[in-house]
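User: Could you write out the 3D structure of this protein bound to adenosine monophosphate? I've included everything you need below.
Assistant: Certainly. Input first, then the structure.
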Amino acid sequence: MKILVFAEHREGQLRKIAFENITLAKKLGQPFEVAVIGAEVQEIAEQLGKYGVEKVVFYKSGKLDKYSADGYAKILADAVQKQGADVLLMGATSTGKDLAPRVSAILNAAMATDCTQVDIEDDNLKIIRPMYAGKVHATIRLTSPIKIVTVRPNVYSAAEAPATAAVDTVEPQVTDFKTVVKEIISGAKGKLDVTEADIIVSGGRGMKGPENWPMIEELASLFGAANGASRAAVDAGWRPHDEQVGQTGKTVSPTLYIAIGISGAIQHLAGMSSSKYIVAINKDADAPIFKFADYGIAADLFEVVPRMIEELKAEKGM
Amino acid sequence: MNIAVCVKQVPDTEARIKLSDDKKNVNEDEIKFILNPYDEFAVEEALTLQEKHGGDVTIISLGSERTTSAMRSALAMGANKAIHIKAEKNPADPLVVAEALTQVLKQGNYDLILMGKQAIDDDHTQVPSILAEKLDMPAVTVVIKLDINGDQIVAEREVDGAHEIVECKMPTIISAQRGLNEPRYASLKGIMKAKKVQMEEIDVQLNQDRLEIIGLNYPPEKSPGKIIGESADAVPELLKLLHEEAKVI
Ligand SMILES: Cc1cc2nc3c(=O)[nH]c(=O)nc-3n(C[C@H](O)[C@H](O)[C@H](O)COP(=O)(O)OP(=O)(O)OC[C@H]3O[C@@H](n4cnc5c(N)ncnc54)[C@H](O)[C@@H]3O)c2cc1C
Ligand SMILES: Nc1ncnc2c1ncn2[C@@H]1O[C@H](COP(=O)(O)O)[C@@H](O)[C@H]1O
């Protein structure tokens, strides 16, 4: 079973999920190669070599400087065939979720999205993926000759394993794109997305208003965390939609999730209950979130959060 | 403008999901089913465009008999046509769903195919992109803003940490993300009118699933939480636990 790992990059920087999937491919104990698509990617060999990659094919063309769903899909489908892969591993990122189903359609290859566990059993993949926003875990099997799996970021941690990576650069045939990205509007510079974060600090309606968010942001930056929000905070216009965690927001699996002024509605829990550790700060000791929290403080967040900031700063000698 | 909206019926977000005894299916007895929330945005967008440009809005759904109630919800919002692709149950494999939808969509002459970004039951996020390849059409997924000028589409989509402005030409597939619009409520008149719409029923031969569910499980149970204090004085204890017990910071 030969695996192809699609190494996603953003503006030339390989993303963490690429290294996580390489680590997963190694763990599965099957031969694997890596495919990179783009115009310019920095230090591919160095970056990938660090994680034990021996062979990379870089599909490189100036025309590929901006992502195009249909354009990239053709190249990736070709790559799967040229590199002779039986399994394509990708990240369940926004690009992965846009691109993988297209490759699945082109290659008539069954696909599993947003998987949280991938193993090999009886010469096939045994995959676990959450459904109903995590209320159910499905064990599934793909039966087509080629199989595509997108893996949820942050589930497998990338492990370094030095090797010498040989990079084959190929200039693919690039036909006209049907969709063209004209512009990318970046969020706050260097803003960490909740789906990629190890730690998330989320605020809800209990925060009372956007004017109180600097406190959440400060706490998040002390933890090196991303900011999240409940739908109540997003609906009120206090926070951007891309921070919403939950059934109609993002599903996250960080190591630590801190819920501040969030009651723990079923739709919110659905998006974050697979976090390794959950901390809740809520003044209502009966709030449902406490049933799921490993550690809770039942008190006024406007006293607890400033105190946390103070203690963390003291720890860091700030 | 001729618009198709593909919709799926799904359990209410409030629903507690219970598994069947053989752990292969979801026990549907106590579940309230609704129109997939993301598909509501698609319906709303179709109706707004219809108000501006005229034409038909056709609701298309593949599913069992009960799916017609979700289709009626979409009709009650104001859509004027409906095609029910009859199936005993929804296939587990999104490729099979997309293959069946492709057959039906090919029959219509649609300028725009609107969909939800994701069905909140299976959470595949696949069908719109598969359709794009099958129908050889451009598609923009996870769209939060849509502008149409002649046959030119400018769509803003949400990606991790940024927004992309994407251009393409109609006919196009668009998958809707929350933020695209504010879905209207069905009026009483709309509900009455929806009851009278004659749904077209189509039988299709579904292909074999290539994604098989071996079993369903509940997520591993979390140990009951503990409240470690009722004032800010519990903060040092909390940080100590995070450092020493959980070892996460
Ligand atoms: C179709 C649908 C989809 C949905 N999808 C999502 C989703 O994806 N994500 C999501 O989050 N929600 C979602 N919801 C909404 C969900 O049902 C809840 O309404 C929402 O999660 C509530 O947000 P909240 O916890 O911030 O607010 P509330 O439920 O109002 O809770 C606020 C909490 O703050 C506490 N509090 C107030 N003041 C203080 C203080 N000074 N100190 C400490 N604590 C304080 C209160 O005790 C309370 O528990 C969805 C709903 C529907 C119908
Ligand atoms: N059975 C179905 N019938 C019609 N449309 C569907 C069906 N399943 C999925 N869709 C459409 O595809 C979108 C994405 O679904 P999915 O890829 O299953 O997450 C949904 O929001 C619907 O618009």
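The two ends of chain B are 55 Å apart (CA to CA).
User: Perfect, thank you.
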